[in-house]
Amino acid sequence: MSAYYPQQSQGLFSKRAIVFLAIIVFHVVIIYAFMTGLAQSGARMINTILQTNIIETQKVQELPPPPPHVDLKAPPPVSVVAPEVEITIPVTPPPIHVAPVVKAPPPAPIRVAPVPIIPVSTKGITEPDTNDYYPDASRRNNEEGHGMVHICVDPRGHVNQARIAASTGHPMLDEAAVKLAKAYRFRPATQGGKPVNFCTQLPVRFALTG
């Protein structure tokens, strides 16, 4: 056994020595190549080989299909017929000046004199007796007087309003005078033959007789 191991170690040592020697020789060759310019020529050779391979690879690739054919001939001109358009522009007539119409002034109104009113009348109608309306108290007190009563007579001849216009000087005689005036019946006043309202003054006198 001891004789075997020394032989095996010697074989391994000789192999390692050969590898080491080869590495040294490789480095010496590289250094020499750089010194002599072999490295530059080798680089050019490698570059040429690479370019050749690239060109061949590009040639192998399929070329794109050619573009479609374009007809460069211009199309025939298109003739467009414009439609006939009739435009009617309204014409504004000139303003018409109309002379103002001068109206004649209206005729002056004709003033017609009013138809006179025929006042009331007691003709033909019995007047009430003053003694019938003489107050007894006034007789006992010897009261006498002359007064004026304002009356209005309607178209029927009746007195519809009566008031003292001038006093007799005695209140009881004034009241008696108003009652006496309302008892009168008149012929109504007329205007144009038609009976109308009429107002007037009626004198009334109260006097004692012996």
Please, could you describe this protein's structure?
With 210 residues, this protein is of the alpha+beta class. Among the domains are: 4-60; 118-206, TonB (TolA/TonB C-terminal domain), CATH 3.30.2420.10. Helices cover 35% and strands 16% of the residues. The protein has helices at residues 4-36, 38-60, 136-140, 171-182; strands at 117-118, 145-153, 159-166, 189-191, 194-196, 198-206. The strands form 2 sheets. A 3-stranded antiparallel sheet has the order 1-4-5, with no helix packed on it.
Keywords:
3-stranded antiparallel beta sheet, 4 helices, alpha+beta, rod-shaped, TolA/TonB C-terminal domain, 210 residues
What is the strand and helix layout of this fold?
Layout: H1 4-36, H2 38-60, E1 117-118, H3 136-140, E2 145-153, E3 159-166, H4 171-182, E4 189-191, E5 194-196, E6 198-206
Antiparallel strand pairs: 1-4, 2-3, 2-6, 4-5
Could you tell me the mean pLDDT?
A: 78
> Would you state the CATH class of the domain at 118-206?
Alpha Beta
Portion in helices: 25-40%
CATH superfamily of the domain at 118-206: TonB
Structural classification: alpha+beta
**Low-confidence runs of at least 5 consecutive residues:** 1-6
Order of helices and strands: HHEHEEHEEE
Distance between the termini: 217 Å
Global Rg: 81 Å
- Largest beta-sheet details: 3 strands, antiparallel
Identify the quaternary structure here.
Answer: single chain
